[in-house]
Design goal:
The protein is of the alpha/beta class. Helices cover about 45% and strands about 15% of the residues. Helix 1 crosses helix 7, helix 3 packs parallel to helix 4 and helix 4 runs parallel beside helix 5.
């Protein structure tokens, strides 16, 4: 059975971090293609905004770092739709800490959200993905392939997710599951606003990003969503293990 075997059915897509930014754009892009999307996030109000005007999107408030957060999300998706065709591990957090400021308490949310949650959610979804010969899309960062002074642990966690992408692609290929990743560069999202950056720090970050982006502009969430939907498309059925930068050339500059 191939990915195309189910092409007449609306695909069921699970997107984490769907309340804003790349996750919101991705949920809407899949819905525009006719998919049924379970949009997952911690906060109900932003998820409702994501779903507004998009009847194919179902909001689901959940904390992926909770003890049974991944299991709760997968069960909710299966109870509503009976299957999962695509899992997009997009949820992520950034902090303002650097190496000298890290504490056990500040490190925990970074690792639990950016690395452990994708591992445990993919594990929880594995039986459903195996049944549908599904697709896993991990959202990493192009900075994970370079240096990010002052935010090394965020970059390191995303770099680890890229290693998992390649490893899972090989491990899960016998089950017909494809695993790919999209590595965004500087994108216009509110992630820095939620991280505790001051206005001055956000401005400095933007200047640094622009200085390291050959195309000389900040990307849009919709541009990353396009890459996610294309890699997850049935037409990409021979693509696995790839990490696609969507970064205006930053990773090669």
């Amino acid at each position: 059975m191939s990915e195309n075997s189910h092409s007449q059915d609306p695909r069921i897509v699970l997107v984490t971090g769907a309340g804003t930014g790349i996750g919101r754009a991705t949920a809407r892009a899949f819905a525009a293609e006719g998919a049924r999307v379970v949009a997952v996030g911690r906060r109900a109000a932003p998820l409702a905004e994501t779903a507004e005007g998009h009847p194919g999107i179902t909001p689901l408030s959940a904390d992926l770092t909770a003890e049974d957060g991944p299991g709760t999300v997968v069960r909710a998706a299966l109870e509503r739709y009976g299957r999962i065709d695509v899992l997009v591990n997009n949820a992520g957090v950034v902090t303002t800490d650097s190496l000298g400021g890290y504490t056990r308490a500040s490190v925990r949310p970074l690792l639990e959200t950016n690395l452990l949650a994708p591992v445990l959610l993919t594990q929880a979804a594995l039986p459903a993905l195996t049944e549908r010969r599904g697709v896993v899309v991990n959202v990493t960062t192009s900075v994970g392939q370079r240096a990010w002074p002052g935010n090394s642990l965020y970059a390191a966690g995303k770099a680890a997710l890229e290693v998992l992408t390649r490893s899972w692609a090989v491990e899960l290929a016998p089950h017909g599951i494809r695993v790919v990743a999209v590595a965004p560069g500087a994108i216009e999202t509110p992630i820095a606003d939620h991280s505790g950056y001051s206005p001055e720090q956000r401005a400095a970050l933007r200047r640094w990003q622009l200085d390291h982006t050959p195309l000389g502009r900040i990307g849009r969430p919709e541009e990353v969503a396009w890459a996610i939907t294309r890699l997850a498309a049935p037409q990409a059925s021979f693509v696995t293990g790839v990490v696609l930068p969507v970064d205006g050339g930053a990773v090669v500059a």
